[in-house]
Amino acid sequence: MAQRLKQEDYDVVVVGGGAAGIAAAVSAAKNGAKTLLVEAGPMIGGEMLSGLPIDGCLSTRGEWVVGGVAKEVFAECEAMGGYVGAFYDWRTIWVVCVDPEIMKLAVMNVVRRNGVNLLLYTFAEDVVVQDGRVTGVVLLNKSQRTLVTARGFIDCSGDGDLACLAGAPHEMGGEDGPLQPVSLVFRMSGVDIDRLMTFVAENPDNVAVAENPYYADISREEQLRRLVAQGYPKVFFVAKGPLIRDAIAAGDLHATALIGIGPVSMKRREIYCNTTRIANVDATRTDKLSQALPNLMDQVWMCSSFLTKRVPGFQNAQFSGIAPRIGIRETRRIIGDYILTFDDVINARKREDGVAKGAHHVDIHGAGTQQLRQPIKDGGSYDIPLGSLIARDLKNVLLAGRCLSATREAHGSARVMGTCMAMGQAVGTAAALASAANGVADVRSIPVATVRARLKEQGAVVDGTH
Hints:
By secondary structure, this protein is α+β, with helices and mostly antiparallel strands. Helices cover 30% and strands 23% of the residues. Helix 1 runs parallel beside helix 11 (417-437), helix 2 (69-79) crosses helix 3 (100-113) and helix 11 packs across helix 12 (448-457).
């Protein structure tokens, strides 16, 4: 006998519990909406738990361009001893480094404190659409299938799953089919930081510095000196340098564009390492993504062994951890009311309808040693309009995170975690305001000025930057 669906009702449902989803759910709840956050995995936080720095929170100038919920999460990390700090990498970007183990606790504390309802181990299986409006989403978990109705839905799935189920058009990858590599971040503890940074100072050909025109008046030598003087192990070893080039040629390291290293705990002398990569994996296909994991793990072990054998400062270091999930840079981009463009990004375009800011350079990884990086004009930031966060032809589906409406080049900037949190806060706020105003209204009926005003009241940055 067929089992009747359970049914529950909310004001706002957020699908996806990564950086964007956390910010969306928290901001919706802050603005009075009864909010459900749905996460397919066992824990919320997404790539914020990987050890990677939170990029995109500050411009190259050092101006904070993301606030609100992101600042609340960082404050929680700091209170628990897990905030390392914000500093310039003397390559292209400012980064915010955190302890991923503390971040696991911090994001949960913030979500709980703001009254968000949470469902883990739960997939959005199907949607109900009537006249361009999603009226419900069918959730699947071990309990049973549940129909959840709501006034507004926010797709923070990364892959645009909810919007696609509802019929939203999308794009994927480049014109000739490439997809940015998937990666798996790992960590090493017990690093002799002084010895590592001495090696960096004495071997400048291995290191990426002085790549941003905003600091062109500072010599490469001086930028390298400042990088070392910071005292933080924040280093990008590049493929064109002899360290990586010779290791790849000798078969001691997989083909990679970089070995990115940065601090996650100064007390444990622990660093993250971002280097693994397998290009052109369609991460919307579970079989393909699953097949990538063993190879990524092989790359992790190869690189950790290479570091201990060949890089000063790592001789007594220990492999200490691995990200809880494969990092996915690129899958679907949902088509929205507006498509954020490459020119918008690199020219630091400001807009009256902007509801979030991005500041990360255009960053598109390719196969092997390939990577495109292009900075933003004058070290500034650009505005993301609300139209890039509204799914075209749907009245109540908002987007945040790497499934936003953007060209591939613009997406290469906006996909980073800090920018994802800014987008999340914007759409969470917009969804809550729309629900409160009229539960059946098109989200477009809420004036952007109203959304911007509320965002500013709650600490988000929507203007006043270069």
